[in-house]
Every structure is written in structure tokens, then in C-alpha cells.
Amino acid sequence: MALFLLYESASGYALFEAHGLDEIGQNTEAVRNSVSDLNRFGKVVKLRSFNPFTSALDALTQCNAISEGILTDELRTVLETNLPKPKEGKKAKFSLGVADPKIGSQVSELTKIPCQSNEFVLELIRGVRLHFDRFVSDLKTGDLEKAQLGLGHSYSRAKVKFNVNRVDNMVIQAIFLLDTLDKDINSFSMRVREWYSWHFPELVKIVNDNYLYAKLTKFIEDKSKLTEDKISDLTDIVGDEDKAKEIVEAAKASMGQDLSPVDLINVQQFAQRVMDLSEYRRKLYDYLVAKMSDIAPNLASLIGEVVGARLISHAGSLTNLAKCPSSTLQILGAEKALFRALKTKGNTPKYGLIFHSSFIGRASAKNKGRMARYLANKCSIASRIDCFSEREKGTTAFGEKLREQVEERLDFYDKGVAPRKNIDVMRSAMESADNKDTEIETEEVALEASSKKAKKKKQKGGDDIVVDKVTENTNADSSEDPKSEKKKKKKEKRKLDQEIEVDDQSVDDGANGVSNGTKKKKKKDKNLEVLEAASETKKKKMKSKSKDSE
């Protein structure tokens, strides 16, 4: 039985025919030894046809289809034109060797060509890949490497392409940075407290907040200069007038030692750094909340932005979290305790990162495990909706309804109130999500209509401005030159003369029409000549009058 090999290179599809396989006896070790030697391998495998890709885009589409196990029209035509056609009702006397079993099954289903993929075929294809540039004589040196590099970059870029607004890696990095900032701010603020307590030790007992303490350190500077005049400024910082007065009184009777100006400057600079870090931490938290509303809105509305982000970062991505069963999600973050319990045959942990949710804290001690299991179930549903939903704009309807279910379950454990069924809750969530989508669509249509109206108004306003400018220019020109006014007066006089002439002609024509309505065209021509002569005499008279007036 003849064996053909399909090789998908970066430059095109190539079909090879293997000869002398009976002599080799399909021994993979013999083939592996002969692959490195082109003289021996060239006797066994020969090129049958090569069909290059038309463009880089065509190569990318073909590569994507093959990786997904899809038979394209181009590959089908290549196989049907170059392989021998089997007779109807009889088995084919050849087989096609392919590297991927997926594409092999697709080819055999659609074209009825028998395909095989085993170690022997893979070794032959490895030899083809090694000596491909020698088999295809039309390829120049370096062409194949360029094609492979370009196709590799474009294929990787196409695989990595995703929605920029739904990048869960940003959430993972933000929550890691948030945790490290919390640790750093705590350690730095403790350092500020210890450092400034040498100068003003009583301030530690009055102010407990780290950010406020750093702010007061920056404001007070030297305690000896703190007077009652600064009570109003201290109340603005602390927010309590009594506490501000207490700080001033403590500064007067302080037991701390005096610091040199250089030491005070260093303490103030370090306090300013702590304040900047805490401000950046606040901005980072706002950024995390915004990103979670884009990436996982339902999970964030169910369990909170920080706990949801920690679950995503611990799982590695939102997709990994969505693939996790609820039992795994329940103990995420408690792996050490789980394996220790399995090793010592003790009790396994009931919750991991999910413990930081407020629902677990509100549940009673005996119901904490049950509540954690139920909450993990709802979190897995919310993460799957966020990950696999095809809605362009994420909605929080499902997360809000799932949160209501968790609240109802808490009431059921505490008071015995029966919760709603899942199917009813999901139906109401679907209805609310559809209503929100329709509201968003109507808002977008209204915005488009208002923008079009605004554009039309602007265009009309621009036309009015142009007309005003033209009138202004004409007025300015008329006011500038007195000679132009005389010319205009002369033009107006000429227009009046022409109008008078037209009126005289109409009167004469009317009279002629009444008296001589049945006369011929020759008489009308004579009348017109007479009228023209009369008008010329009138013009001469008007000119003479204008000269006399000048």
C-alpha cells in the first residue's frame, strides 16, 4: 500500500510519496537513522506536489484552521487533485500520513481518504521537515526561515488577541501590589511613629490612624512652635476640635527630647513619603474596583472586589477560576491546611480566601461551613457567567441576584425563612439583564440623535456667522472709501432710469395693444425703435442734469 505524507509548511502545503517501505518493513529505528542522511532519505521519500500560500494572511488562516482540526477548501482541493482517486465501492490502495490526528479524522470523514498518524509517520514527517528546503528547489536560501518567523509572530499575536478591557492579568498585578503596599505602609508608618516619638511621644496615644499621624508629623514639625493659633489648622487635619486642643496641650508639657533641624527635615520627608504611598494605595484601590467591574462584574457584586481579585490571582486567571469546581474554590488559599489534614488524617479546612467575605463572618459558628459551601457554589456560577458570557458590556444583574440568594440562605439558617428556588431567581436575573440592555440601547440611540442635532445646529450657526461676516465686510468697505459711495449713487441712478424706461415701454405697449391689437410684427418693431430713441433722449437729459449738479 502506497503512503503519502502531508506536510504543512510556513510557505505552503506539500505532498510527499514514500517508496520502498516494504524493504524497510516500517521499522521506526531504521527510519530514525536514515532521516539525518539526505541521500538515504531522498531515496525513500520524494516530493509529489507543492502548493504555496498566496499571502501571509492566507498562511495565517490555514495555520489557524489546521491547529483547530478544520479542513479548509484549499487543502481539500490539494488532496483531491494530487492523490489518486479510489474506485467506487472499493477500498483505497493508499493512505495519507498526517502529523495531527484531528486533521486526519476530519480528512477521512469529508473526503473518504484513509489517514494514519503513528510513530513511523511522525519520523518520516520529521525527516521531511529537516530536508524541506532541499526538496523544494524553487525556495531560495532564507525564504523558509523568513516565512516561519513571520507566520510564527502572526499566529502568536492572533492567539494572544483578546479584549483589552477584560485583561485579568491587570487585576492579578493590582491585587498583589495592593497587598504589598499595605505591608509597606504599615511598616513605614510604624517607623515614622518610632522616629517622631523621640521628639513628641504623647502624639502616639492621641492619634491612632497611621495616615493622620504622618500628616500631623509633617504639619507640626517642631513641638515647641505649636501654639493655640494653629488649633484651626489642626482641626482641619484631625476633624475634631477637642483632639486638636489636646495635641496643643500635650505639646506644651511634652517629655520628648529636642531634635536638630536636619533630623526634623528627614522625619518630615519620610512622613511625606508615607503619605504619598497611602494616597497611591487609595488610587490603586479605585483602579482595582474599576477593572473588576469590567472583568468580573458579577463576581465583584457578589463577594466584593478585593476578595474576587484575590480568588482570580490565586487561580491564575478568570478562566482557571471558572473551570474550578465549587469544592476547589471553597478551599482556595488553604492548600497547606488541606494537605496537612490529609497527611495527619485530621479535619479538612472548610474555607480559604472565601473566609474574608462578610457572609462567613455573619454566619453562626455551626453554620460557617455550610455557608462557605453555598457561597463557593454561587461564586463559581458568577465566575463562569463573567468568563463565558457573550455580552459586550458586562451586567451585574446575575451577581446581584446571587447575592440576594446568599442573604436569603443566611436568613434561612438564622430564622428558618424558606429561600426562593434557583430557577425563579435566574429567570428574574435574565429579565433584569435584558431590561438593562434595552435601556442602554435606547440611551445610545438618544445620544446619537442629540449629537446629530448638535452638529446641524453648529452648521447653521456657521452659515449665519459667514453671512454676518460678509455684511460686516461690505459695511466696512463702504465706510472706508468716500469715492465708492459716489460710484454707488451713480449705479442707483442708472437702475432708476432703466426702471422708468421699462415702465414707459410697458405703458406704450399697453396702449398699442388696445388700439392696434390686430397689427403685424413690422409695426411693433417700428414702435420699439421709436421708444428706444425716446429713451436715449431722456438719458442725455439726465446726464446733463447730473453734470450741472456736480
Report how far the terminal alpha carbons are from each other.
Answer: 121 Å
What is the share of helical residues?
over 70%
Tertiary shape: extended
Q: SS-based structural class?
A: mainly alpha
Q: Which stretches of 5+ consecutive residues score pLDDT under 50?
A: 469-483, 502-524
Number of helices: 26
How many strands, what sense, and barrel or not for the largest sheet? 5 strands, mixed
Assembly classification: single chain
Our Rg estimate from Cα atoms comes to: 46 Å
Could you tell me the mean pLDDT?
Answer: 80
> How many strands appear in the DSSP assignment?
5
CATH class of the largest domain: Alpha Beta
Our count of domains comes out at: 3
Q: How much of the sequence is in beta strands?
A: 5-15%
Main β-sheet, spatial strand arrangement: 3-2-1-4-5
What fold name stands as the CATH topology of the largest domain?
Answer: Nucleotidyltransferase, domain 5
Q: What is the correct CATH architecture of the largest domain?
A: 2-Layer Sandwich
